[in-house]
From TrEMBL, chains A, E:
Molecular-function GO terms, alphabetical: ATP binding; ATP hydrolysis activity; phosphate transmembrane transporter activity
Protein name, as recorded: Phosphate ABC transporter ATP-binding protein
Key words, A-Z: ATP-binding, Nucleotide-binding, Phosphate transport, Transport
Signal sequence bounds: none
TrEMBL record, chain C:
Upper classification of the organism: Bacteria, Pseudomonadati, Pseudomonadota, Alphaproteobacteria, Rhodobacterales
Any one GO molecular function term: phosphate transmembrane transporter activity
Annotated PANTHER family: PHOSPHATE TRANSPORT SYSTEM PERMEASE, PHOSPHATE TRANSPORT SYSTEM PERMEASE PROTEIN
This protein's name: Phosphate transport system permease protein
Record SUPFAM superfamilies: MetI-like
ABC transmembrane type-1 domain location: 173-390
Presence of keyword Transmembrane: yes
Membrane topology: Multi-pass membrane protein
Location(s), subcellular: Cell inner membrane; Cell membrane
UniProtKB/TrEMBL annotation, chain D:
Record-linked CDD domains: TM_PBP2
Record carries keyword Membrane: yes
SUPFAM superfamilies attached to this UniProt entry: MetI-like
Name used for this protein in its record: Phosphate transport system permease protein PstA
Compartment list: Cell inner membrane; Cell membrane
Alphabetical UniProt keywords: Cell membrane, Membrane, Transmembrane, Transmembrane helix, Transport
Residues annotated as domain ABC transmembrane type-1: 225-436
Species this chain originates from: Paracoccus solventivorans
Gene Ontology molecular-function annotations: phosphate transmembrane transporter activity
Main location: membrane
Length: 267, 320, 402, 447, 267
């Protein structure tokens, strides 16, 4: 997976459609202006990485993309966000349908207090993706395998998801999200609790998903961003400072803030 | 609806249930449904109108007032038969282990009145012990449990004991001389509120429990209730007369009252067995001496025959 | 048709509608259910709901309009059942006709269910409205007969037969507050500590036994508590507390009623609080324990504040029951309407007098009876204030976790 | 500025020795824990005392003394016409049948050679239950061929005799009791010794309808149990779904604004409305407006439903509030609708609270008397209601009402029955809640 | 901080006392044997890193060290763990006192639903470490500064801790833990949600803490382990595979599993 060169990828980038078109996005938490004038085009069949210091608004923006911010009473969202040209904040839009198309892995693993199997099977069940029990079993196994969790849990699918280790929970949430095959997958630091090998497997998964879907990933690891993404957006203090192809961001950042963030990295 | 519905006085309730049960035992009619709730509430429901949604019989431990009858008529309840089926005695009884009491209405008034006249002035009742009221009585703290104002019995108590005692002792005249007639009447029946006369909002079983748990306690009961609980209560003669079915029937015992039920003759034919029940209630075998009602403690009406005739003839109120 | 058969017919049609709707949805896409906007079950549900809800609504409305007594023979009632059945059939047809792959059946079902949820909430509102209405009119008649200021600010409560009553509610209000206060003084600490013990310390076994056992306390009829207060607790308090302290020798007292009522209210506080405390995420406890706090500190500083809204709800429920209780007060506290600070004296409450005056032997149109409605209304307004306060407290101190 | 974070590490102390601060905190911990245990114990002790009182007073209600004696169905008493015409025979009232029983008892006394001084006719008549003659009459009318025969007849003794056998009335008390006598006491003991009178389990107490004030021994809970059962059925079927639905709307869907605040406060406030006011409402709405019949379980059930709703709503809402938002996020994140989120995840997690509310609400509803007073259910009903749905509209009583009634009656035997009825009510409550308690245990989990 | 060479550190290591002496530690979760025969000596004034694939038992072992496993009903612990020579599972040991000495930062940030200030002040308050309000303010500020959170939150100390971003919550939990100055600090992936700069600051903090305390850190980043720790323990499937000085582990691992784990690393 990591054999593909950066060059190869960036070439493909140009040919892709815009999946999400965001203009002037603003988010307030009560009085606090958490996101300011964010404008970004997220491409289809592309992995987009959001980087930036902790607290800069990456998760907030991610949650805007599938309207998860609706659940936070204090949050207000402004601006325009178009998914395939349709405004997702249009009152006629059914957020449920939106979220079925735009899946999400949350920053803090939040498995349901149900069995591991049910955690993964939940999405396919409600969306009717697996009509028979055998289909469902297959979907669950496939998702857990792709999330690199199958070997850890195959003997204990009936145990509750909350009894897993931190990294296992994180992978369970990934498996849960991909089980519904969303068009866009938003992943908020999906590898933060994973060891290098599991991380590699998830990155491989992301790369694989890119063939058909659009993936947005928040990460604090520059290396990871460089490895998996074709586009990178750098956030700082609520502003989208720079958005460009990953190569450009890492080799020739335009904004001094981007540069200092990238060079301030360690190891 | 095929069941007769009865509601009203809780004093009459036991007699009505006995009659209803016997009625069901002896006829093919369904057993009447009998509710308590108090005389006033019963009459109110009774007078609400005619039709299957309203009750057929109202029990009452006092005669229906003119106002209530007018209310009935106004609501279309035109034919009301009044049936007086017996008398009930009201007795004073204390704990079985306490001293004997022989009371008079004056004593009771003097012990329980809110205010008495001392040296020509109205003063809050100073009596603390029965002996303060009448030296022949035991030197026991006064603690009397009186039915609360929600009970019909209370009204009888005020009229036949408090007011009578007030008259007999001459207090009433003294009060009238001070404040006029009207105020005197009110003052005669007002009970002290310093905890020596305790209102009982519950029923006789509560009064009994209170007498049980208070060695000084004395309570006001119905005669039949007392007769069922002679192992725990000791009755006090009033003016020298011991309350019994006989002494109440003869009128010797002063504190008694008639018991009634009111039949909605408009429902005859509408509710099966209504007239039959009214008649059955007052037959000799039920309401007469030796019948189950008298066994239970009812003082039978000496003019029961006239009552039976009136029911049979459907003699409605206000017709004469 | 009897209501039961009508009901069975309607429900049968709804069940049929479910099956048909589902089948049709599947058939429309030739078995490839992914082409459907909504899962086949939702199509089925929608048809079922369309078949069941309108006729049921009709039946209820018809029942409100005319007596719903079975076997009622008047014309409208007899027509109602067939009409409902027809309506069910029509709903079934319409539902089936609307099915198409792109049809948003789930949204439709959810909208219907949402409406049903709102309807259910409205029942609570309707109840309130009904209560206020049934109190207001009779209260108005009362205030025509009796001056309102004497009622609200009078300190003497002496209803009499045939007029001349003094119907000041302050002594009753005082009694209500005093007794409820004592009851909560007993129930809240015991209930809260019991809840804490059950959720945080007790083993699963102890908890499995203790919780339902304590709940039995809520199921014992109040008359038993009343008799218990009257026969056992009253004399005990009189002989061991009131008389030695020289504070009176009344068997019935505020303390007696409050204490016994407090016992009855324990499960209202304990069971509900236990559930809520149990729902506080373990990670919060871990956080506090990891900092070296003792379990009790964890509970006091972290768990209880996080569970506060639920606990306030539980206490409010207990307070409500305390205010609404009759029998224990009648038997335990006596029927004396008076204002006194001595907890060993007999007093009474608004609720007791509502019951007493309403079921009593007074003329129904006399102020002595009508005062019950005014008392009810006053109580209603008073508790409303209490609840607003509670809401405010919860809003202010709520610690929303995660 | 003193800065603890800056000071040297605290001196190393053994883990096995607790320092002063920890000792103090541990003492507080122990105290706290003790308070908890004490609270549980207090509640349990209160329960034990109440249970003890109830069982002490009520257990004997399940036992009843009965006499078995040969009775001659004398034709001159029951069929003076002599033509065995049931219509004619029906004119003979139960009171006459007591002559047959009196004779039978007198014969039995003579036959077994019992010598009791001062035995009066009243003692004889009062020995057997008034129910006995009614039963005998019914048997004879049902089978006129019995006339003229001698039959072995088993019947209840009167409440006083029953109490003597149970030891509630002693010989000394009998002397003071206006309704019995020493002679009757001696007779009862003699008949018991000869096996004529025997105590046995009292099924009638559970199955029979209420008895009038003069027949405490015949009074049973049949109608009340049915009535309570019907009402609870209605309450469960209505209050639980409506309460849960209302809570879900208010907690999960309702916009948070003034109006919903008002609704919220209102519902909490409903919990504080005295139950009798619900009776007023029920009378006005269901009986006077809708026109449902008085004394019917349907009305009782509806009133109790309204009364129970706030309890269920308050506890359900509290439980819904306690479910962490991350669980909602998780479900919404995989594309579940809000409705699905609530029904698939939030509600199951809130289930313990819902069930607690149900348990408490039903307990309250099952034990409530006051509102039933106004809708005519506090009544003497001796006819069983029929099967639902018609039975929901028939007059019926209810367990708390029966208890309330019995505690008010004069004969002390009713007090025993009331306590017995409380035992039945508690058993009923337990049976009703068992499922809820079991379910709640299943749903309980930590996350 | 990163200027110190690896050599310098390993020299110092030898002179240190053993803080935790663990022998034969076993943990079962119900039937599952999650930790098997773990024996390890954790030194004082040393940073020890636990590494290993996700689900291998790192967190489990960490939680044993301050008896946080007591709170998991299903967990059973066997073996011996001595802190300064005293068995911490001795029945006479007060876990409260133990936990006051052995602080912990959990894998999933778990701020209290209280204000940021109260979150940090909680430990000092219960342990009576800051007698006056001014002291407390000072401790809170100092802890937040050391956890690199002060600048983010200094204007909003009264806001609830749960309204922070994921990385901010993590730093808040670190601040909360160090505010009580424990002798041993157990940190379960303390930097997983942090950007490189914040990570550097936390690593600096760890290095600083090492002067006086013993620090155990779970990490998935080999680089981080190599940067901050002097001793490293490698766990695999519930076994402690290898425990040695960090240099040795990373340069000459003894066990083939260790080697393959370390070399399998990416980036
Ligand atoms: N509460 C629990 N109940 C049952 N099993 C558990 C529980 N907690 C952890 N486990 C299991 O124990 C094993 C070790 O878990 P642990 O949390 O120690 O892993 P870890 O090394 O910290 O992994 P990660 O890096 O993913 O956090 C895992 O297989 C996990 O599934
Ligand atoms: N629910 C909330 N209420 C108030 N403020 C919030 C809320 N959620 C986030 N914030 C604030 O908004 C800002 C952006 O938060 P966000 O979670 O988007 O950060 P982030 O970039 O994801 O950071 P991290 O890398 O630490 O997760 C932060 O300052 C945070 O404190
Ligand atoms: Mg974030
Ligand atoms: Mg872990
Ligand atoms: O119920 P009363 O007989 O007192 O009217």
């Amino acid at each position: 997976m990591n054999q593909m060169t950066q060059a190869e990828r960036s070439v493909q980038t140009e040919t892709r459609d815009v999946k999400f078109e965001c203009r002037d996005v603003q988010v307030w938490y009560g009085e606090k202006h958490a996101l300011k004038d964010v404008g970004v085009d997220i491409l289809d069949k592309t992995v987009t990485a959001f980087i930036g210091p902790s607290g800069c608004g990456k998760s907030t923006f991610l949650r805007c993309l599938n309207r998860m911010n609706d659940t936070i009473a204090a949050a207000r969202v402004g601006g325009q966000m178009l998914l395939d040209g349709e405004d997702i904040y249009d009152p006629r839009v059914d957020p449920v349908q939106l979220r079925a198309r735009v899946g999400m892995v949350f920053q803090k693993p939040n498995p349901f207090p149900k069995s591991i199997y049910d955690n993964v099977a939940y999405g396919p069940r409600i969306h009717g993706l697996a009509p028979t029990r055998a289909d469902l079993d297959a979907v669950v196994e496939k998702s857990l395998r792709r999330a690199a969790l199958w070997d850890d849990v195959k003997d204990r699918l009936g145990e509750t998801g909350t009894s897993l280790s931190g990294g296992q929970q994180q992978r369970l949430c990934i498996a849960r999200a991909i089980a519904t095959s969303p068009e866009v997958l938003l992943m908020d630091e999906p590898c933060s609790a994973l060891d290098p090998i599991a991380t590699a497997q998830i990155e491989e998964l992301i790369d694989e998903l890119r063939d058909r879907y659009s993936v947005v990933i928040v990460t604090h690891s520059m290396q990871q961003a460089a490895r998996v993404s074709q586009k990178t957006a750098f956030f700082h203090l609520g502003h989208l400072v720079e958005y460009a192809s990953t190569d450009d961001i890492f080799t020739s950042p335009k904004d001094p803030r981007t540069e200092s963030y990238i060079t301030g990295r360690i190891g | 609806r095929n069941q007769i519905q009865v509601a009203g006085s809780s004093t009459v309730l036991p007699y009505a249930t006995i009659a209803a049960e016997a009625f069901a035992d002896n006829t093919d009619f369904a057993a009447p449904v009998v509710e308590g709730g108090g005389s006033g509430a019963g009459i109110k429901q009774f007078c609400a109108g005619v039709g299957p949604r309203t009750i057929d019989i109202a029990n009452s431990s006092r005669p229906m007032t003119q106002a209530e009858l007018a209310d009935c008529h106004a609501n279309g309840v035109a034919r009301v038969i009044e049936v007086r089926f017996g008398y009930d005695g009201i007795v004073f009884a204390s704990g079985i282990n306490g001293p004997d009491f022989a009371l008079s209405t004056q004593d009771i008034h003097a012990a329980l009145a809110a205010e008495v006249v001392v040296d020509g002035r109205r003063t809050p009742n100073p009596a603390r012990r029965w002996a303060d009221v009448n030296p022949t009585l035991p030197a026991q703290e006064i603690a009397v449990f009186v039915p609360g104002t929600k009970h019909g019995t209370r009204e009888v108590f005020e009229e036949k004991v408090m007011a009578a005692g007030c008259d007999a002792s001459g207090t009433r005249a003294e009060l009238a001389a001070l404040d006029g007639d009207k105020a005197a009447r009110a003052a005669c029946t007002a009970l002290r509120s310093d905890g020596r006369a305790v209102d009982i909002d519950g029923d006789y079983t509560e009064t009994l429990a209170r007498v049980d748990s208070n060695p000084n306690g004395m309570g006001v009961f119905g005669l039949s209730f007392y007769e069922n609980n002679t192992t725990r209560l000791k009755v006090a003669p009033i003016d020298g007369v011991v309350p019994t079915v006989a002494s109440v029937a003869s009128g010797e015992y002063p504190v008694s009252r008639p018991l009634f039920f009111y039949v909605k003759a408009d429902h005859f034919g509408l509710v099966p067995g209504l007239k039959e029940f009214a008649e059955f209630f007052v037959v000799d075998a039920i309401a007469g001496p030796g019948g189950p009602l008298a066994d239970y403690g009812l003082v039978p009406d000496p003019q029961l025959a006239a009552v039976q005739a009136a029911v049979a003839a459907e003699h409605v109120m206000g017709a004469d | 048709m009897s209501p039961l058969t009508t009901l069975i017919i309607i429900l049968g049609l709804a069940g049929l509608g479910y099956l048909l709707g589902r089948r049709r949805a599947v058939a429309l896409v030739a078995g490839d259910t992914r082409q459907l906007h909504s899962r086949p079950a939702y199509h089925g549900w929608l048809v079922a709901l369309l078949a069941a809800l309108p006729p049921l609504g009709l039946l209820v409305l018809g029942g409100l309009a005319g007596p719903l007594i079975p076997g009622a023979t008047h014309g409208a009632g007899a027509l109602l059942a067939p009409a409902a059945a027809l309506l069910a059939l029509a709903g079934l047809g319409v539902g089936l006709a609307r099915i198409s792959p792109g049809f948003r059946a789930r949204n439709a079902v959810e909208r219907v269910i949402g409406l049903l949820l709102i309807l259910c909430s409205l029942i609570a509102i309707a109840t309130t409205l009904g209560i206020v209405l049934s109190l207001v009119f009779e209260s108005a008649s009362f205030f025509r007969l009796y001056p309102w200021h004497e009622f609200l600010f009078g300190t003497e409560w002496t209803p009499r037969f045939g007029g001349g009553s003094k119907l000041g509610m302050l002594p009753l209000l005082w009694g209500t507050l005093y007794i409820s206060f004592i009851a909560l003084l007993v129930a809240v600490p015991i209930g809260l500590f019991a809840a804490i013990y059950m959720s945080e310390y007790a083993s699963r076994r102890v908890r499995a036994v203790a919780k339902p056992a304590i709940e039995v306390l809520a199921g014992i009829p109040t008359i038993v508590y009343g008799l218990f207060a009257l026969v056992t607790v009253g004399p005990l308090i009189r002989d061991w507390l009131a008389q030695p302290l020289g504070l009176g020798d009344s068997g019935a007292s505020v303390a007696t009623a409050g204490l016994v009522m407090g016992i009855m209210l324990i499960p209202f506080v304990s069971s509900l609080s236990d559930d809520i405390i149990n729902a506080v995420p373990q990670s919060l406890r871990d956080g506090a324990l990891g900092l070296g706090s003792t379990p009790s500190e964890t509970i006091r500083h972290v768990v209880i504040p996080a569970a506060l809204p639920g606990i306030v709800g539980a206490v409010l429920l207990a307070a409500s029951r305390a205010i609404g209780e009759t029998m224990i007060v009648v038997l335990g506290a006596g029927a004396m309407a008076r204002i006194s600070g001595n907890p060993f004296e007999a007093m009474t409450t608004i609720t007791v007098k509502i019951v007493g005056q309403l079921t009593g032997d007074n003329d129904f149109n006399s102020p002595e009876t009508l005062v019950a409605f005014a008392l009810g209304l006053t109580l209603f307004v008073m508790t409303l204030g209490l609840n607003v306060l509670a809401l405010y407290i919860v809003r202010k101190y709520r610690e929303q976790y995660e | 500025m003193s800065d603890p974070a800056q000071t040297a590490p605290r001196p190393r102390r053994s883990l096995l020795q607790t320092d002063a601060g920890t000792r103090r905190r541990n003492a507080a911990e122990r105290r706290f824990r003790t308070y908890g245990a004490a609270a549980i114990l207090t509640a349990m002790a209160a329960l034990a005392v109440l249970m003890f009182t109830v069982f002490r007073d009520g257990a004997s209600a399940f036992v009843q003394a009965r006499a078995t004696i040969p009775v001659v169905i004398a034709a001159d008493v029951v069929d003076p016409q002599g033509n065995r015409d049931p219509a004619e025979m029906a004119k003979i009232l139960t009171m006459s049948y007591s002559r047959l029983l009196d004779q039978a008892l007198t014969r039995e006394i003579a036959r077994s050679g019992i010598q009791v001084g001062g035995l009066t006719q009243r003692d004889i008549t009062g020995f057997l239950s008034a129910q006995a003659r009614a039963d005998l009459r019914r048997a004879v009318l049902a089978d006129p061929s019995l006339v003229g025969q001698e039959i072995e007849w088993r019947m209840m003794t009167s409440s006083r005799v029953d109490a003597m056998l149970k030891g509630r009335i002693t010989r000394e008390m009998a002397a003071r009791d206006a309704r019995t006598s020493v002679a009757q006491y001696d007779l009862a003991m003699a008949l018991r010794d000869r096996g004529v009178v025997r105590a046995g389990f009292n099924w009638r107490f559970i199955t029979a309808p209420d008895g009038s004030d003069s027949r405490p021994e015949a009074a049973g809970l049949g109608v009340a149990i049915l009535g309570s059962f019907y009402m609870m059925l209605i309450v469960l079927v209505l209050a639980l779904p409506i309460g849960v639905a209302a809570s879900i709307w208010l907690e999960e869907f309702a916009p948070k604004n003034r109006l919903t605040d008002v609704i919220e406060v209102n519902i909490s406030n409903l919990a504080a409305v005295p139950s009798i006011v619900f009776g007023i409402l029920g009378l006005a709405a269901f009986i006077n407006f809708v026109g449902l019949p008085r004394s019917a379980p349907i009305v009782g059930g509806l009133v109790l439903t309204l009364m129970t709703l706030p309890t269920i709503i308050i506890s359900t809402r509290a439980a819904l509030k306690a479910v962490p938002p991350s669980i909602r996020d998780a479900a919404l994140g995989v594309g579940a609708s809000r409705m699905q989120t609530v029904f698939h995840h939030v509600l199951p997690l809130a289930m313990p609270g819902v069930l607690t509310g149900t348990i408490l609400g039903l307990a309250q509803a099952l034990g409530e008397t006051a509102p039933l007073m106004l809708i005519g259910m506090v009544a003497f009903v001796t006819t069983y209601p029929s099967a639902p749905p018609q039975g929901l509209f028939d007059p019926a009583s209810a367990l708390p009402v029966q208890i309330y009634n019995w505690t008010q009656r004069a004969d002390p035997a009713f007090f025993e029955r009331a306590s017995g009825a409380i035992i039945v009510l508690l058993a009923f409550l337990l049976a009703m809640n068992l499922i809820a308690i079991w379910l709640r245990r299943k749903f309980e989990r930590r996350w």
